[in-house]
UniProtKB/TrEMBL annotation:
Keyword Endoplasmic reticulum belongs to the record: no
Gene3D superfamilies: Ankyrin repeat-containing domain
ANK repeats: 86-118
GO molecular function, one term: protein tyrosine kinase inhibitor activity
Name the record gives this protein: Inhibitor of bruton tyrosine kinase
GO CC terms of this entry: cytoplasm; nucleoplasm
Keywords of this entry: ANK repeat, Kinase, Repeat, Transferase
Coiled coil start-end: none
Domain of life: Eukaryota
Length: 151
């Protein structure tokens, strides 16, 4: 921990720290992000901005699969955390932005497809809602066909 930030403790909720973390995640490489998160703030993996977004939301929005895996495996972040704005989880964001590798990673780490946002939509509902008209999903005996495609 840098001696420049004596106010950063395990209870840190600094909005400036959250904004700095978001900036690095959106612009940095995987190595830069990991180094920054490991040394900048005690709560870098869980700190939230004014919209309730944390590092897991931004990593999934930007397609940073390596960072997602690292956070899930070493930092123990809450992969089901919802933002304040829409109630979206990291999975909602990965699906919305089309980062299928992040979707698969989150599913492998146990994230449910059925967690709902503030409008009552699950991440799977987002796939159904934004599909082209000519694409039809059929229910199968076990799971919906999109689930069979993803898994």
């Amino acid at each position: 921990m840098s001696s420049l930030m004596p106010d950063c403790t395990s209870k840190c909720r600094s909005l400036q720290h959250a904004l700095d973390v978001i900036s690095v995640v959106t612009r940095g490489s995987e190595g830069q992000i990991k180094a920054f998160l490991s040394s900048y703030c005690y709560n870098a993996a869980t700190i939230k901005d004014a919209f309730g977004r944390n590092v897991i939301h931004l990593a999934s929005s930007c397609g940073k699969k390596g960072v997602l895996d690292w956070l899930a495996e070493t930092k123990g972040v809450d992969l089901l955390a919802k933002d304040k704005e829409s109630g979206w989880t990291a999975l909602h964001r990965s699906i919305f932005y089309g980062y299928i590798d992040c979707v698969l990673s989150l599913l492998k780490h146990g994230v449910s497809l059925y967690v709902q946002d503030k409008e009552g939509l699950s991440a799977l509902d987002l796939v159904m809602k934004d599909r082209p008209i000519h694409v039809v999903f059929k229910k199968t005996g076990r799971k919906s066909s999109i689930l069979n495609f993803i898994l």
